[in-house]
Amino acid sequence: MNRDVVVAGHVCLDVIPQFPPKSLELAPGALLKVGPAIRATGGAVANTGIALHRLGFNVRLVGKVGDDLFGREILSILRGQGEHLAEGMIISRRDTTSYTVVISPPGVDRTFLHCPGANDTLRARDIPSSAFAGARLLHFGYPPLMRQMYLNDGRELLRVFTRAKKAGLTTSLDMAEPDAASEAGQIDWPALLRNVLPQVDLFVPSIQEILFMADRPTWQRIVKKHGTVSIPRDIDLVLLRKLSGKLLDWGAACVMIKLGDQGAYLRTTPDKARLEGMGACRPANIDAWLRRAIAFPCYQAKVVGTTGSGDCTIAGFLGGLLKGMSPEDCLKSAVAVGAASVEAPDATSGVPSWSTIQKRLRSRWRSRNSCISL
Ligand SMILES: Nc1ncnc2c1ncn2[C@@H]1O[C@H](COP(=O)(O)OP(=O)(O)OP(=O)(O)O)[C@@H](O)[C@H]1O
Ligand SMILES: [Mg+2]
Question: Which of 80, 163, 173, 264 has its CA 20 to 30 A from that of 18?
Answer without folding.
Answer: 80
